[in-house]
Amino acid sequence: MRRAALAGVALLVVLSGCSGDSGDSDADSDADPTGSPSPSTSTSAAPAKAAPFPKKDACYRLTFEQAVAPTAEDDSVGCRTSHTAQTFHVGRLDTVVDGHLLAVDSAYVRNQPVRECPRRLATYLGTTPSELRLSMLQAVWFTPTVAASDAGEDWYRCDVIALATGGRLAPLRGQLARALASPAGRARYGVCARTEPGTRNFRRVICTPATAWRAISTVNLRGRDYPGQKAVQAAGQSPCEDVARRQADDPLSFTWGYEWPTKQQWDAGQRYGVCWMQR
User: Fold this and answer.
1) SS3 state of residue 51
2) In this model, does residue 43 exceed pLDDT 60?
3) Where are the domains of the chain?
4) Predicted TM-score (pTM) of this structure
């Protein structure tokens, strides 16, 4: 049996902030010196109208750069066509605190989709938070621009995407509601690698028949502060070996690996390690 000694490899966590440019500019004044407006230059602007809420289960053809942007204004596409994102939740932003109206890019407003979208994703996909870690599906979120918020828009939109290598999004297939509730869905969007975890060319990819390694389980790690590399490395050895043995065709001959979080990953919220097995 070969035990892979793995260095911590950063997991890509897509978090989008919330900012925007109102696009407003000061207009030149053509009023005459007496203070009376010039009839030839005075105008009256029509009040801006708030756009309708985004629709749940709508699909979009986004690039990676668009998916991690704080706002999105792309038109939806049919979910039976090629797409890379699907809306799984639409909520209303709370922009008033103690009677005061807050900007859409304030920390209080911005943190609302940060909390809600990841929390709701596992339920939408028909799985548990622990099982969701073993898929390439992740949540991203969008809010209105500052200008749109000023016009009355107060929604936030949660989309699910699948990560690919090289800063790209993987194509999605049909509707994703309960996509991870079946073995076929878990296999389709599972986390795999073509090379041994911890090696130089290691990259997470969506599982295909050509991928040699598959993430098979996670190990929850305790503690508020980072326990240190030796402690997090030791914590996953026996659990990963045990789960790999149970899944192996031959319990006396199998290859497995364990990937533990770095301090940077720990501080970012990853309090678990990943068990890998060679297929």
Assistant:
1) coil
2) no
3) 54-177, 190-279
4) 0.79
